[in-house]
Amino acid sequence: MQKLFDHLGIKPNNKKIYQLAFSHSSYVNEKHLKADYERLEFLGDAVLDLVMSDYLYNQLDAKEGDMTKIRASYVCENACFRYASDLNFSDYIKVGHGEELEGGRYKKVILADIFEAFMGAVYLDLGYDTVKEMILKIIVPYIQDDSIIFFQDYKSVLQELVQTDQRSLYYQLIKEEGPAHDKKFTMEVKIDQITYGIGTAGSKKEAEQEAAKNALEKLATLD
Predict the structure, then answer these.
(1) How many CB atoms are located within 10 Å of the residue 20 CB?
(2) Active site residues
(3) In whole angstroms, what separates CA 40 from the centre of its chain?
């Protein structure tokens, strides 16, 4: 992992926390260890949101809604997966034998989660200023490359469309399946109590986006 630290220009104090950030639940269960990366992922998700919010607020003269959409583009699952892939995180991930056989170290949801967990580890070990500098070093080049589009915010488009007609809209979890380390969530989106779209993904947020996309496609055929 030293190669990764050198590339990112960081000097860790507590290397154990980075080992934890790369430890998937399948590996932890197999080795009978105490913890996996999930708590660090929770923290890292918040750190990413804060750093990118701060960056966009200071760099753009844009409305709140526009900044929210841009931020979502660069902290979504697809984006975090790309960052982790380009940084060769797969070389460091620890997964159980079964997950290894299923290609777990290359799965989008796992790589995206571990990217967030790594940010949480850097924040705890080296502080906010260091993690902020590192996140911007990683993400800003993607922002500056206009050809890279990680994310289409279908939820916002659907929300704006529904608000125009003053109709109610909400998302509901209708199915959760798979082992803890490889969950699949199915969400439905309802407009005025009628189901318009269903989506399935490795996280609830992504499943909601898929459901919104499905609803927009359906609404387009009704016009």
Answers:
(1) 21
(2) 45, 116
(3) 13
What is the identity of the amino acid at 64?
Answer: E
For 54-90, give the DSSP string. HHHHHH----HHHHHHHHHHHHSHHHHHHHHHHTTGG
CA 115 to chain centroid, in Å, comes to: 8
Instruction: Give the tens place of pLDDT for each residue, 18-64.
Output: 999 999 999 999 999 999 999 999 999 999 999 999 999 999 998 88
pLDDT at 164 over 90: no
Helix (H) or strand (E) holding 195: strand 194-201
Count Cβ atoms below 10 Å from residue 223 Cβ, excluding itself.
Answer: 4
Give the bridge partners for 188, in sequence order. 172, 198
Contact 153, 65 (CB under 8 A): no
Q: Using 50, 70 and 90 to split pLDDT, how confident is the model at 223? A: low
Kindly state the tokens that stand for 3: 């190669």
CA-closest candidate to residue 69, choices 209, 218, 217, 219 = 209
Closest to 123 in 3D by CA, of 3, 42, 211: 42
